[in-house]
Amino acid sequence: MKLQELLKKYEKLAHKYQLDEHAVSWMIMELSEMQASEFYLNMNQEVSLSLEKKIEDAFNQYHQEEIPVQHILGFSYFYGYKYIVNNQVLIPRRETEELVEEVLMIYDTYFNDQNVDILDLGTGSGNISVTLSLETKDASVDATDISEEALEVARKNNQVLGGNVEFFISDWFSNVQKTYDIIVANPPYIPQNEAVERTVLNEPHIALFGGTDGLKPYEIVLSQAKNYMKDKALIAFEHSMYQSENIKALVEKYFTDAVIIQKKDLQQRDRMTFVGIGGVLK
């Protein structure tokens, strides 16, 4: 079977079973061990029987066992970097790349002339903390998670990608000992009883669900953050597209004099809130 025929076969099956066709195409490309340009230039190439079998097995895992494609492959791309992922960590999302991009722009504008301490709360795979470490010049990056299994994944990513992040276990601020210029968090924000796709349920629930209304982690962080922030500092959150006004109200409850900027993602969904104190954000 030619590569083009095999690709069409599984794209049709993905459509039939209401699966993510793009994810299936990406999985086939990665299993073929080709770069995108090479993959599409070799559509008329015959596929080996061993590769056909590997793709069939992977598709069945995705379709029948509802295992996310990234877990089948064992990795996901984030901000141009290849991150190890497994069922102990949340799969990095595109909107989180936008959060990191915004943080880096704020860093360049308000902090670029000084040594900066950054804290990533609930780091998971380390995608936020390691990327910030790789993309900043003079930043010292710490990252926490309540899960030791997640921290093992994050440490591997830090080592493989050449980051310089210090990881430690902490339930939000419980083991944090210093103050920071930038605190970043992408907390679990799905309300406890909200329905989600079954493949998503294969990700760690502790990284998905944020209490009854999805706001509990934000209240915890905001209620304690002042104790761990420098006089000039930033808090950056990713959150549900439905919680923008509620997040803003929580910020105003604990930071009466802060500058609050909220931004949409590329899909025009309310996804990010930035809290500036001491002259950060205008």
TrEMBL record:
Residues 114-195 form the Methyltransferase small domain. GO terms for molecular function: nucleic acid binding; peptide chain release factor N(5)-glutamine methyltransferase activity. It holds the Pfam family MTS. GO terms for biological process: methylation. It catalyses: L-glutaminyl-[peptide chain release factor] + S-adenosyl-L-methionine = N(5)-methyl-L-glutaminyl-[peptide chain release factor] + S-adenosyl-L-homocysteine + H(+). The keyword S-adenosyl-L-methionine applies. The keyword Transferase applies. Its EC number is 2.1.1.297. It comes from the Bacteria. PROSITE patterns: N6_MTASE (PS00092). Keywords: Methyltransferase, S-adenosyl-L-methionine, Transferase. NCBIfam families: hemK_fam, RF_mod_PrmC. This is peptide chain release factor N(5)-glutamine methyltransferase. It comes from Acholeplasma oculi. The gene is prmC.
